[in-house]
Design brief:
With 215 residues, the protein is of the alpha/beta class. The chain is built from eight helices and ten strands. 34% of the residues lie in helices and 18% in strands. The C terminus is likely disordered.
Amino acid sequence: MFIKQVYRCPYCNVKTSNAICCSSCADDLKQFVNNKTGKTPYCDEFSAPLVYDDIVRDAITRFKFNDCPDYHEGFAQLMLSCNLFDADIIISVPSFKKNKKYNTSALLAKCISKQIGIDYEPRAVKKIRETKFQHQCDFKQRLTNLNDSFAAKPRKVSGKNILICDDIITSGSTIDEIAKACKHARANKVYAIAIAISNVAFNYENNRNNFKDEQ
């Protein structure tokens, strides 16, 4: 007997048959659709289906911090609507040590890997030093907090196109540092995709230059 799967809407938390969102939130979500891509010095291009604001910000906060791992299926479906680029492998954002129940980036990466048939390589990149959590940093600290904190394995990434999966791209620093590690390990191209992106990330180089000018 067929059993209809029940999800929780990430934006209002009600039960729904649609993983992306309930019918009540569908129109609201259209206001936060993102149609831009960007890049950083090391990340060749990044994208996300949504803009990080209002109900989207609240939903991702619950996903990350309020024990809502089941949201990942709906978020991953939205991410699949973006240009996923010409990737050979998918990676997630690694932690220095396990300090919470689940890694949101890894949940998204595994789900997308399964959907598009590209290998997920959880050990291709590792974090090599402990840092503050990005959400605990102010904007200026975010730009330097992760400097040289990742290392990539050449045998996993050399000559390949890499797709980084993350939950949010805010300052752009995380994906740039991971992309830098991959490029140092001779990766070909590095791309990134997330659930949502802040408008700040599209001005990554300007933000870095302004920060340097203030030093």
